[in-house]
Amino acid sequence: MKMPLILTLLIAGALIAGIQSPTQANTALPFLTESGEIAKGREMHEEMMKKGARYDDEELQAYVQQVGERLAAISERPHLDWTFTVIDDENINAYALPGGFIYINRGLLAYMENESQLAAVLGHEIGHVTAHHAGRQQTANVTNKLFQVVALLATRNYDVANTANLLGTGLVRGYGRDHELEADRLGAVYLHTMGYDTDALIDVIGILKNQETHAKLKAKEAGRKTGSYHGVFATHPRNDARLRTVVNAAKELGESPPSDVNPSIFRSHIEGLPWGRRTRPPQRQEDRFYHNKLNFTFAHPTDWKVDPGSKAITATEPEGKAQVKISILRREKDVEPRDFLTKHMDAKRLLRSEPLNQFRLQGHTGVTHPRDGDEQRLAVLYYGSLAYLFEATTDNAASYDEYDAAMFDLIQSFRPMKAGERGSTKEGPSISFIQAEEGMTFAKLARRSRAGRDAENQLRLINGYYPSGEPKPGEWIKIVK
């Protein structure tokens, strides 16, 4: 019997709480070997992927994987099979699972300005893994954080996580200042070693601190409470002496290789990134007809033509040898489907008469008697307050037996649309880059932005200009279009 995901993660939380840290070998008993840690992390990773958490942009995924691999290769645990995944979630979040599985939400990527900031987030999360921070927490604490991750993925309750922790959230959320600073120290070393700007670590935490400040102001205006994104820095990160110390220490490790990062590469991967909650495209099959307004669908032979007319819907065989016509009427109270069918289709006698019960829809079908005219299949299905009448005919009596099975299959495939089939074909708002012009302000950009009601502040936040300041001419800035 397959173990439920939540139970799996809760047990995993209890197990990984016993992993030893290389720097604190006597603080916990090693209940889980490294191979066990990797296996448990992979199991949780696969469960997340089954739930469709992965963002479907292969070029962006490959880019993030490449940046992460370069950092992990010079970490204390380069032998791990590191996996870096962009999650299709608009919330500001990044987290790690044991064994080298690192995640970053697309919502967080929207606030980043360059590859150094991306590397800063990934480096910090790598630091949590290499320092075995999960194993240095009490079982109850880690288990609780694991539960929060699962709850968010399962319920998609973003109100709870709207200002989620940037560095060390989810599994490693709430590690405390010492562990967060240790991850910062390790991340800064990785950045320096690879030639990235170590101040990017401070910058990216500062950007998210601005987001937290803004969220708290909005929450106060609305009379509700909101949480802290990190819980470590009471003041702005740029003013935190301990953070400055660990970042500056990395700069003293020796000469850093020259940076060869092309800023346009980062922009090219963020261009077109969905903004906010994404409207997923409908998941539909080519051999089905979908009626968005009335929320129904039916299957048809792939070569048949479906004409959604104003008075009726018809599905026709390519040479016109067979046709199914669907008409829509109001249901009549307390009238059984068979009586409704014989009344409205003027069918005095029905052969092969039988009730229909499909996809929780009640109906009836039968074939008219040849003496009453051309043989044809009739059917009715009740769906909501409407009755769907089917009239399946052929061009001549000889063709009826040849096509009756296909026409009956069409009738029996009629059902309400599923949630994934509804979706939307409209493009949602997305991130785009432009170069600022003389006199351009965020207030002006907000007037034609799709960033929502609070567009000006959101544009400031994603461009690092919160709460004030205006873009400089020639500067690349993000807009939401």
Written account of the structure:
38% of the residues lie in helices and 17% in strands. It is an alpha+beta fold. The protein folds into 3 domains: 5-261, no CATH class; 288-421, Protein Transport Mog1p, Chain A (3-Layer(aba) Sandwich); 431-480, Roll (Membrane-bound Lytic Murein Transglycosylase D, Chain A). The strands form 4 sheets. A 7-stranded antiparallel beta sheet has the order 6-7-8-12-11-10-9, with helices on both faces. The chain has a 3-stranded mixed beta sheet with strand order 1-3-2. β6 (305-308) and β7 (313-316) form a beta hairpin. α1 runs antiparallel to α2, α5 (115-130) packs across α8 (199-222) and α7 (177-194) runs parallel beside α9. The radius of gyration is 30 Å and the shape is elongated. The two termini are 48 Å apart.
Short description:
By secondary structure, the protein is an alpha+beta fold. It has helices spanning 5-16, 34-50, 58-72, 106-109, 115-130, 139-155, 177-194, 199-222, 241-251, 263-270, 337-344, 400-412, 419-422, 442-447, 455-462, and strands at residues 83-87, 94-97, 101-105, 288-291, 296-299, 305-308, 313-316, 322-330, 350-358, 361-368, 377-383, 386-394, 415-416, 431-435, 476-480.
Note the main attributes of this structure:
Membrane-bound Lytic Murein Transglycosylase D, Chain A; about 475 residues; Protein Transport Mog1p, Chain A; 3 domains; 15 strands; 3-stranded mixed β-sheet; alpha+beta
